[in-house]
Amino acid sequence: MALVSLVARRVGVFAVSLLGATVVVFFVAEALPGDVAEAMLGLGATPEALEALRHDWGLDRPAVIRYASWLGGLLHGDLGASYLTGRPAAAEIGPPLAVTCWLVGLALPLAVLAALPAGLLAALWRRRWRGTALSFLSQLGMAVPVFFTAIVLVVVFAVRLGWLPAVGYADLVTPAGLNAAEWARHLVLPVTALAVVQASLLARYVRSAFVEVLTEDYLRTARAVGWTRWRALLRHGARNAALSVVTVVGLQLGAMLVGAILVEAVFGLPGLGSFLLQKVANRDILVVQGVVILLVAVVLAVNLAVDLVYVALDPRLRQQGASRQSGRRLSADKAGRAGSGPGSHW
Amino acid sequence: MTAGTEMSGPRGTLPREVPSASQDSVPLLEAKGLNVWFGRHRRQALRDVSFRLAPGQRLGLIGQSGSGKSVTALAVMGLLPDTARTTGSIRFEGRELLGAPERALAALRGRDIAMVFQEPMTALDPTMRVGRQAAEAVRLHASATSRATRRRVIEAFAEVELPDPERVADAFPHELSGGQRQRVLLATALLNRPRLILCDEPTTALDVTVQAHVLDLLDRSLAASGAACLFISHDLAVVARVCQDIMVVFDGAIVETGPVARLLANPSHPYTRGLIAAARLDEAAPGSRLPTVEDFLRGTGS
Known about the structure:
The structure holds two protein chains of two kinds. Helix content of chain A is 76%, strand content 1%. Chain A is an all-alpha fold. In chain A, a hairpin with a 2-residue loop joins β1 and β2. Chain A is globular. Chain B is α/β, with parallel strands linked by helices. Chain B has a single domain (28-265), classed as Rossmann fold (3-Layer(aba) Sandwich), CATH 3.40.50.300. Chain B has eleven helices and ten strands. Chain B has helices at 69-77, 102-108, 130-139, 146-159, 165-169, 178-190, 208-225, 236-242, 260-265, 270-279, 293-297, and strands at 29-38, 43-53, 58-62, 84-92, 95-96, 113-116, 196-200, 228-233, 245-250, 253-259. In chain B, a hairpin with a 2-residue loop joins β9 (245-250) and β10 (253-259). In chain B, α3 packs across α4, α3 (130-139) runs parallel beside α6 and α6 packs parallel to α7. Chain B starts with 28 loop residues before the first strand and ends in a 5-residue tail after the last helix. At the A-B interface, α9, α10, α13 and α14 of A face α1, α2 and α3 of B.
């Protein structure tokens, strides 16, 4: 059946991309000047000492062999052990990963929740000053760098008003028990800073998706059978608008991870950003590779999910097994409508 | 979905302003002094349009593209785009539609007044099975079990001679041909046995053989249900086939109106004369240039 082969193909693309990513991640890290032995023993180390250390860690084996053993470990869910601490890389990555996950995992839904109504209203009000104002706000949110937004938030809410901490992080689960209040207090500002940028960007896509949907004939048909404006829009418009918005949400995840690293720096959060920098400086390559491949896998997995959601939303794709864009092409292919003018059917 | 409070009674109990003794003379639909403007520049699309439609009457609305045919139908439905400004009066069974609240209009749409659109290719939601889309017309105006609703939809699909109606109901729009989609739309419009059907060039996008079939279906369905019809077309032959009366609209204004036979025999407006001449292929001399509507419009200053 077409659907099964379509899903199989998408999963196949995911697997091949991930495999390709392991090659790139491994050999780019490999190309970094210097290695963990030099970083650890310092400039004054003798060649013999370096050699001995490299031999202990297996760094004197050919790169291809080391890649193969790393990949073999990955397939078993084993990221290897840190050269420096000897602890499993997964255990090293865990705590900073949790911080970044909370940051992105809270900011993304918040951004979507804010962008949907904002974009919808901007589309409905596009010929009125209120719509222009919304569009202006989202332009502003996009144009201002995320660290600037973060600093403004710190100045206002931490320094002036003193409501929230300016820097630092509190673990959600501590040995003493659940620490939800402190944890949340430390996350409010970083999550907001990250969400503002993403919400602004998403709102623009939501707006243009709805502007397009508002001129579609089927929206007029829906009203002609008895739906009110709003119900026609929610029932027949939202699903079609979601087609383009879902794609953007998936693609934005990568950008959000970058934004998260900047936000972590401003708020002094012990997330993946500072962790990764420190590990690169120490040439703790296995941990670096582990972090990067993990992020790549997350982004690829989200894109796979987007693809599958897309197939679920658009029946035209199920039949043709075509790409994401073909749905848009079909809907864009419409004849002129006599008398309806440049306005929408709303 | 609940209908607006003043609309919630069963069919036939709508409040009427005219006493029931004179019901025969009450038009089903009456437009008076209808003006429509579009956009910032206030481009006028309809100028002082007035007409009446008796219950069961079939009125053809004919004119060039851009003359205001579709605008007239959309104004009746209350579905003009948000850039439109409308003045005048449109009464359905005595009740004013212009300026009526959206909920009251929505309760009327699809139940008492239905519309069949010109573009079957884009008039259906591409993400929803057509049977479910048609079922919405039932569900919105009456409470029925989903099984009963589906049975009604499939019956309606069978009535417009869709082959294998069960399969069609489970199909997505892109799986159907243009003619099939237009039949789905026609069946949907007929589902609630409306008293008025607005047809906006329902066969223009179809090829000629399918066109004839759909017109036959429409003709029979109208005869069976006794619904009145405002039939929009730029094709005289199509209008003459379905309607008793014709109204000719030119540049947003109605230029002449009357029974089909009289109007064809004795057209007064140059546009009507041009349409008739252009349709009379039997009178064309081989090798000579065919007459066009524009030949007749020259000198009218429009």
